Fold this protein.
Amino acid sequence: MSESMSKRLAAIAKPLAGFAVLVLIWQYGAPLAGIPSYVLPLPTEIAQRFVETFSVQMQGLAMTAFTTLAGLGLALVVGVLLALLIIYVPLLGSMITPLLAAFNSIPKIAIAPLFVIWFGLGYESKVLLAFLLALFPIFVNSVTGLGEIEADLIDLSTLAGGNRWRIFVKVRLMNAVPYIADAVKVAFPLALVGSIVGEFIGGNSGIGHIILSGQFNLDTPLVFATLLSITLFTTLGIGAVSLFENAFLTWRPSQRRR
């Protein structure tokens, strides 16, 4: 086994071992502490409830995943386009950036009821909430990646015969892709939060609706089981971005050092 493979296995084994220890403490420590199961169910009860409601959870998670990914995709397109406007039309930067920063400071849960009133209980309000929560980190990282380039590099590319389009594709965009990938890792959980908040405020489907059902019925194991589903979904999403980085961003310094 190569040294790099051993390091990767060790990096995976350590958090898994820590998680296993935490679960064992939870499983045997909660009864000793006298914590009732309706307050903190045991891991075995959560696992059993997860298996029992797996099909229902997957149906709800499919709806939540759709609104999350739709909002994230919309935020990716709009965030990058806004960043391009600021880079190539600097006058707009002093107008757009303060407005986005001010809007980002507003708690999105406060405007979620407005979206329900305007767009109803369908998927539109959830997509918009996911979009709003994911937009700002993508926008900020896109501006950084597209703009933080040495002027000498631009001059050298121009002297080498590059036109504005080739410089954008080969220099600015390639420099921005790692920043955007990092932004997606942050924006993906935020978009998921937006979708679930929308389901809390006004929804009749999705994983958020299942959480509310567990709350109303005092089914604490079901609430924890849905949290497990959400955690797995988030981990898969961030893992997909990491796979993209490993496959297509091999020129990145952090990848070359591995």
Summary: The chain has a mean pLDDT of 82.
